[in-house]
Amino acid sequence: MTGHKVLLIGAGGVGTIVAYGIHLAGNSELSIVVRRDFAKVNDVGYNIDSIDYGIVEGWKPENIYPSVAAAASSGTVYQYVIITTKNLPDIAKVEELAEPVITPGVTVVVLIQNGFDLCRPFFDKYPKNVVISGITYVGSHNSGGSVHQTQPDRSFFGSGRNPYIPEDLQESKVKEFLSIYSNGRNKPVYITNEREYRYKKLIYNAAMNTSCALAGVDTGRLELSGALDAVAIPAMREIIAIAKADGINLPNDCINNAIHGDDGDWFEPSMLIDVKKGNPIELEVILGNVLRVAEELNVKTPCLSLLYGLLKAVQFRLRENQGHFTLPIDRPISERFYK
Ligand SMILES: NC(=O)C1=CN([C@@H]2O[C@H](COP(=O)(O)OP(=O)(O)OC[C@H]3O[C@@H](n4cnc5c(N)ncnc54)[C@H](OP(=O)(O)O)[C@@H]3O)[C@@H](O)[C@H]2O)C=CC1
Ligand SMILES: CC(C)(CO)C(=O)C(=O)O
Description:
Elements: E1 4-9, H1 13-25, E2 28-33, H2 38-44, E3 46-50, E4 54-59, E5 63-65, H3 68-73, E6 80-83, H4 94-97, E7 108-112, H5 120-125, E8 131-136, E9 139-143, E10 146-151, E11 154-159, H6 167-181, E12 187-190, H7 194-215, H8 219-225, H9 227-245, H10 254-260, H11 270-277, H12 283-296, H13 302-321
Parallel strand pairs: 1-2, 1-6, 2-5, 3-10, 6-7, 7-8, 11-12
Antiparallel strand pairs: 3-4, 8-11, 9-10
The structure holds NADPH dihydro-nicotinamide-adenine-dinucleotide phosphate and ketopantoate.
NADPH dihydro-nicotinamide-adenine-dinucleotide phosphate (NDP) binds near residues 11, 86, 114 and 141.
């Protein structure tokens, strides 16, 4: 197979569906990095049960590597590096993870992850590289090489707007990526306003994921308990206010659409699932980044800030339980004076 040299890092729920979609499109030489499941996937491939693609057994791309370093040592100059890991800058920065496979001025980075302002750290580190921002509403999970995609791959791709590169070049790369990814069965959409799409998705992720993760309940229980009205909806209004101060008027029905998207489901947003599994949460990209923008724009965010403050303690607990740090047996005494 010849074509665009594409590497995907993060072959989880989203990543395997993106990789398979690119494979079906047939315009690329596709490589993927598979960490924990490398031995199994390298041996027997993926089994995929997909609402878009049906049952697929034993699928493998052209190249499978156990690490980013191994993908780099193949000597390939990747034209596209797609990142579909969780985005956890407080633990490992994705712009550093991908460094061995990014050729300055050549590689286009595609970030398909939840959160806000994800491209900024890439522009600082790689001022000559195009970064594409991918907002996805897919529902997909990978367990040891068995992938179950329950929600169609509805995804939107736009230029991250690198200030150091002409915008028309960046737009042309977004269009090229869509030709690499579109296969007639998925529906990737070209957008010119990625920030607006990021804000729209934050309506859900910054308010529902966070409230459910903190309370330990699904979205149905959040509603029936009254916490949806008391906390999540005011938090959504704060996202609308931040977007407005940022020059973006979100549509009138954005809260209504976000809430009714779960109708009939006792739905568990990804942040709740991470807490239940004991995994770190994408707190900084889903909430921290937008709160930093709110501060720059002088927007008051009482609900979001409270959610953020308490979830920092949750993240601390999750990280301590995963052994990221250990605390001394005796609690250190603080000499701080509290007025
Ligand atoms: N799943 C979904 O339905 C949706 C997810 N999203 C967003 O998409 C992004 C991806 O989510 P999701 O697919 O669910 O996440 P998963 O946890 O399923 O997958 C992440 C993958 O990244 C891999 N990974 C992490 N670090 C590295 C590393 N250093 N080197 C190589 N591989 C690595 C993990 O490997 P390992 O198994 O070894 O840990 C894992 O396979 C997130 O930002 C999420 O919020 C958005 C919409 C829906
Ligand atoms: C709402 C959803 C499922 C959209 O894909 C999501 O982004 C999440 O749970 O984090």
